[in-house]
């Protein structure tokens, strides 16, 4: 008579596999894609633009360059990403109407009356080899600068945070601090 080979009990094997599956599903982290939330401008027929003078005075442009080594060049000076927000805020607000910062033009704004509004535009250009994380960090700082200016104005004028205001008041503040960030096509060589 041949010796019988012992069997491994299979009844609890399905339970163990199910428990392992649940364990790995619960403990695994999923990478969330990071991106930029942007409202794109409406399309304009190029023939309509031919009659308009679209030149921007050089002092009204805040130039931000990011090279392939992820170095940040702001208005011709090397800068740390941590300082970008304050520099962008100063540029867009131009609180003392400095000659080296953007011009201002009078504008009638609801809830504020006649206000001097900056003509400033932020111009961002990066290299094709710029790391995506650096690009996002720069974008986030620029957007945060404008959001902080809006929030400070909302608290000063209405005593509330910008996001707590009704739509009409938010629109008025957006007229004073519009988000004018222009992105140039990335360059393939060092900037």
UniProtKB/TrEMBL annotation:
Q: Which family does it belong to?
A: Belongs to the ExbD/TolR family.
The keyword Magnesium belongs to this UniProt entry's keyword annotation? no
In Swiss-Prot or TrEMBL terms, this protein is called Biopolymer transport protein ExbD
Give membrane topology per the record. Answer: Single-pass membrane protein; Single-pass type II membrane protein
Subcellular localization is given as:
Cell membrane
List this protein's GO terms for biological process: protein transport
- Predominant localisation class: membrane
Q: Which GO terms describe its molecular function?
A: transmembrane transporter activity
Keywords tagged on the record: Cell membrane, Membrane, Protein transport, Transmembrane, Transmembrane helix, Transport
To which species is this protein native? Answer: Draconibacterium orientale
- GO CC terms for this protein? plasma membrane
State which residue ranges cross the membrane: 12-32
Report if keyword Cell membrane is assigned: yes
UniProt-listed InterPro entries: ExbD
Top-level lineage group: Bacteria
Question: Which Pfam families does the record match to this protein?
Answer: ExbD (PF02472)
